[in-house]
Amino acid sequence: MSSWKVELSVFRFDAQKDYNPCYEKCVIEYFDDDMLSGVLQSLPLKDFEYHRNIALKINNIAVFDDIKIIDLVKEFGQEWVLEPLSIRYAFKDLLIDREAVLGFYHRFLESGDFLSSDEKTELTKFININFISPQKNPEYYGDGFFLYIKWLLKRHPQQAKRLLESIGDVKNGVMNFVSVADFVYPKSRQIDKEIFEIQKMFTNGSRCPIKGNKWLNFTSKINEKYQFQKPIIGKPQEGIVYAIFDGYEKKINYKPLIFSVRAMFEKLGLKTLSLEFCFDGGYWGRFCDEEKFLFANAYNMALAHRYKSIFLLCDEDAYANILYAKKIIDSNSDVLEKINQKLKDYDLCYDNTVEIRYLNEMIVNDIKLKFSQQFNGFSTLMFGGSLTSQIDKICYKDFFKRMTLKRYEGSIQNESYAHLFEVSEESALLQSAEIRYGAIDLGVDFLLTLSTGQFEMFDTWSKKSSRYYKRDFDATPVLFLPELVLLAMGEKDPKKIGLHLHKNKVNFI
Q1: pLDDT digit string (tens) for 180-233?
Q2: Strand 79-83 and strand 4-12: pairing?
Q3: Distance set, CA 382 to CA 372, 379, 414, 448, 451 (Å)
Q4: What phi and psi, each to the nearest 5 degrees, are found at residue 30?
Q5: Which of 233, 341, 396, 432 has minimal CB crowding within 10 Å?
Q6: pTM above the 0.90 mark?
Q7: Pairing between β-strand 56-58 and β-strand 61-63 as defined by DSSP bridges
């Protein structure tokens, strides 16, 4: 029977005698049927402690199941960093101090006079969930705590107001949640779905028992961004035409993305079309008023279809919104009928045969690109958006290989705090700065992003976020994928790429 090896760097710490942790290296040999529990048990480390029920992180990703090593190698490669779920609460090696974690909730538990002792003890079952999230905010209440509150809501519906108020804080409460689907293995969207439901209790007035709920004003501000107008319908163009979605919130800088897409398509001989698309709801639309969110996305799809064009989504979050909306509309005849009744006022009709394409998928898999410019000696790291976990991953390996561009990869690339900007500006900018500088410190020449929201954090707000992070400003630029493609195709004029529309000057060309 064949065997293989994995190189480990294992977190070592004893809170009773160590001031700082260290990492001890070792190599393990494994066979096809070896399990994680067996490997942990056989590690050649003196006085090594770990959670027997499996609760640890491998390369910053939480693992709670006893999984075959061969499957873990497929996911994490053959070099692992083993750490406790929380370094902040590290007690002994991979064990955390659970009593210290519970101490964070002492005030809540003491004030919960309606809770039985068993219900208070139940919180311990949710603690591990807190540490899946990549959140950098040490005062964040924790996703496990939010799920605990949801559990209590079912047992004490008469205490709903009190329970929801306990997690409604602007800076540290449930509205600061970021997706954890990509930070647990095996990947799961279940926690995301559960917490999205809690968030909707705050943003949907009919479901929130809190009088004067401050989050209803938040919902009103999101809803004010929708502007629908009856389009002036012209004659459709002949042949294949791409209608490029540009219905972003007007105050964000999406112009470099749209400019570069049009420039790239022009070079490729592909026709594009400008239409008056409406705001699609952004990140928060689906939480605040799902009916308006669905109508806005149906309006945009119907408008593109009316011109017999292919509806092209150029950033990850807008594409995720369309997929989410289309799935609901196509599967619910009542919703479809209601939407089409309203669309009559705009001389439009939603048709589920509308052709939708995602730009980055086309760039990587469909469009035959000829690169005349190579990036030998250059490196980058590519960030997704706040809804990155909602769409299928694209394999970019061969794409970057063709232009000889080194791409760093790691869990950091799936972090995004852009959507928190409307909840807590300071939190969004501070945490965005931390991941931005985390990439810069790797030595990259530029950053890449698939999201207009992330671009805002890394370009428009980069100086202010640096001040929050208390670090001297570094002007390392961020590019969209079509801008990189234009550079690889040999274009050197910044004004023909859209680089002149960036706030931070792009100097590496």
Answers
A1: 999 999 999 999 999 999 999 999 876 677 766 778 889 999 999 999 988 877
A2: parallel
A3: 22, 10, 9, 4, 10
A4: -135, 160
A5: 341
A6: yes
A7: antiparallel
The residue assigned the tokens 């009190």 is 162
Query: Hey, what CATH topology would domain 241-360 get?
Result: Glutathione S-transferase Yfyf (Class Pi); Chain A, domain 2 (1.20.1050)
Q: What is the topology classification, in CATH, of domain 367-501? A: Rossmann fold (3.40.50)
Report the alpha-carbon distance of residue 369 to residue 367 in Å, rounded. Answer: 6
Please check the confidence at residue 75 and state whether its pLDDT lies above 70.
yes
What is the amino acid identity at position 372?
S
Q: E-assigned strands of 162-266?
A: 184-185, 241-244
Q: What is the phi-psi region of residue 65: left when phi exceeds 0, alpha when psi lies from -120 to 50, beta otherwise?
A: beta
Domain with CATH 3.10.20.30 in the chain: 4-95
Q: Burial letters for 40-60: b for 16+ Cβ neighbours within 10 Å, e otherwise?
A: beebeeeebebbeebbbbbbe
CB count in 10 Å sphere of residue 479: 28
Predicted confidence band of residue 1 (pLDDT cuts 50, 70, 90): low
- The helix or strand, by DSSP H or E, that contains position 446, with its residue range, turns out to be strand 446-449
Right CATH for 98-215 from 1.10.1060.20, 3.40.50.720, 3.40.50.2300, 1.10.3720.10: 1.10.1060.20
Q: 4-95: what CATH class?
A: alpha beta
Q: Degrees (nearest 5) of the Cα angle 390, 398, 445?
A: 85
SS3 199: helix
Beta bridge partners of 185: 63
Q: Once rounded to an integer, what is the mean pLDDT over residues 406-413?
A: 95
Q: How many alpha carbons fall within 13 Å on the CB side of residue 7?
A: 4
